[in-house]
Amino acid sequence: MKFFILNQRYFVITSVALLTVISVICAGVIDSWFWVPAVVFGLLLLVGIHDLHQTKHSILRNYPISAHIRFILESFRPEIRQYLLESDQDEIPFSRQARGLVYQRAKGVEDKRPFGTIEDVYKSGYSWITHSVAPKHITDTNFRVRVGGPHCKKPYDCSLYNISAMSFGALSGNAILALNKGAKKGGFAHDTGEGSISRYHREGGGDLIYQVASGYFGARNEDGTFSEEKFAETAADPQVKMIELKLSQGAKPGHGGMLPAAKITKEIADARGIPMGQDCVSPSAHSAFSTPIGLMEFIGRLRDLSGGKPVGFKLCIGHRREFMSIIKAMLETGITPDFIVVDGKEGGTGAAPVEFANRVGMPMQEGLTFVHNALRGAGLRDQIKIGAAGKIISAFDIARTLALGADWCNAARGFMFALGCIQAQSCHTNCCPVGIATQDKIRQRALEPGDKSERVARFHKNTMHALAEITGAAGLTDPRNFMPYHFMVRQKDNEFIDGNEAYPYLPEGFLLADKEIEELHEWHSRWGRASADTFAPKEIPFGPYKRAKAIAGEKAAQ
Fold first, then answer.
1. pLDDT score recorded for residue 300
2. What are phi and psi of 218, to 5 degrees?
3. Strands 385-389 and 487-492: what pairing?
4. Is-contact 374 511, C-beta < 8 A?
């Protein structure tokens, strides 16, 4: 008995072997139909024998046949959790409530909620808009902001909500076509992502933000370096309204990428200007510049080559001193970007190392607040527009982001939900179940561009309508008038603060003033360490490090 208890893990394979023998005997003695179970059990027995001899999985050696159940259940775990176990508020990374809101607005069906909020309004981190007893009624929801600084010849009136960067290659041709057609119908912009402009972008006819990344796709020489001639040709396309230089992205800042040769189709190769049969590498850093001044000169050159279209850059904030170095380069060269897009580390991507996705880069709200105030401190905020991206899918998300300093918002996954994304999180496998993040021709057929483009346009329209309603409720006539004081933030379970205190606007020009503001000592210290000539630090501040509030408290005590 002890022997059987100790070796019960082999019960399944032993049973299968016995059933195979019994089925063969019955097939010869009773009825030939027994060959059916004999074949089935025989195949299972072969699987078990293979499990016993393979060396890759220890669990299969100890539990032949039965251990496969574990792998099957593990493969369905995300779907089981999403459909059966998660609550409406579990964010992995978007809650069912958030996804449902996008689906409803994209389909044009009822998006109201009965019986009150399901949010814990007394939980730390909860925030809300302060409404007015004299609300406004807004009829024109075509909210726009003009992008184009003093050196721009062709400014662009940008919608307050646009499609963020998603490349052809990461997304299917049908998905790109549906997004761009939706942007055309809804009158908003579609960022190409670093994969350049494909025939699906051109066929859609919508406004494009052409992204230039470290691989210079659509504007590269054969050796991968930047080509002025090819860039000028691409940027001259009348569909291209703005040019975005990508320094980093939120989900994997400081990390390059590679598209294996096996995944490169003729269409991808044509769009990117790369050869077939070779791995496509996106370096982690640009080769066209290496200093803050070099970055500004490159931006100035891109603006000239594009015929004066708005040119800016996108980044996720890392070393804050480095961004201040870029600002010093603006002041020294007199060249300013027309816009800066702040991407939060909560942003999405088709694939990123777990450490990068979870632990590298600054979240959007903190990054946006820093960029906004750094530009204010240098007296440049009125010359440069700011876009922001990072899990922005509702009217409240947009309103709060505008209040923190953004001029417009971008979203990638929100518009993917509008296409029908079910958050299967299989973007990197080429097996997207709804045909969005795949190059599999059969899977792509599931996504019909005509119908899905209507959903994209409808989602944008209904979100702008909701933004108008929430703006009017705050007593405002334009969402660009939202300020931090229109929001309250709960910091503790029994304490909340004004948005001005949580995300203050710092004084204009304070970084350039002769006298240092004591409460902003750490800003002045970081500004002093920044250099327009290099991204490297002039000196490293060794501890102990004390915040300005702590210093002020010590002085008051003395």
1. 98
2. 85, -5
3. unpaired
4. yes
Single out the residue of 97, 255, 183 nearest to residue 411, CA to CA.
Answer: 183
pTM of the model: 0.89
- Residue ranges of alpha helices (H) inside 81-157 are 96-107
Alpha helices in 378-448 (DSSP H): 395-403, 413-419, 441-444
CA atoms of 558 and 556, how far apart (whole Å): 5
- Contact status, residue 191 vs residue 182, Cβ threshold 8 Å: no
Identify whether the C-beta of residue 97 lies closer than 8 Å to the C-beta of residue 394.
Answer: no
Beta bridge partners of 244: 211, 312
How many Å apart are CA 466 and CA 444, to the nearest integer?
32
Please report which helix (H) or strand (E) contains residue 259, including its range: strand 257-259
Residue 501: count other Cβ atoms within 10 Å of its Cβ.
Answer: 13
Residue 183, φ and ψ in degrees, nearest 5: -65, -40
Measured CA to CA, the distance from residue 400 to residue 413 in angstroms comes to 18
> Residue 333 in contact with residue 297, Cβ under 8 Å?
yes
Assign residue 166 a region (left: φ > 0; alpha: ψ between -120 and 50; beta: otherwise): beta
Residue 496: beta bridge partners? 490
Nearest-angstrom CA–CA distance, 198 and 178: 13
Please give the torsion angle defined by the CA atoms of residues 95, 97, 100 and 106, in that order, rounded to the nearest 10 degrees: -90
Tell me what the mean pLDDT of segment 262-287 comes to.
Answer: 88
Write b or e for each residue in 102-115: b if 16 or more Cβ atoms lie within 10 A of its Cβ, otherwise e: bbebbbeeebeeee
Percent of the chain with pLDDT over 70: 93
Residue 340 amino acid letter: I
For residue 291, which of 254, 331, 322 has the smallest C-alpha distance? 322
Strands annotated E in 304-384 = 311-315, 339-343
User: Is the Cβ–Cβ distance between 94 and 391 less than 8 Å?
Assistant: yes
Q: Write down the H helix ranges in 120-275.
A: 173-186, 199-204, 228-235, 266-272
| Chain mean position to CA 487 | 25
pLDDT greater at residue 373 or residue 253: 373
Q: How far apart are CA 217 and CA 196, in angstroms?
A: 6
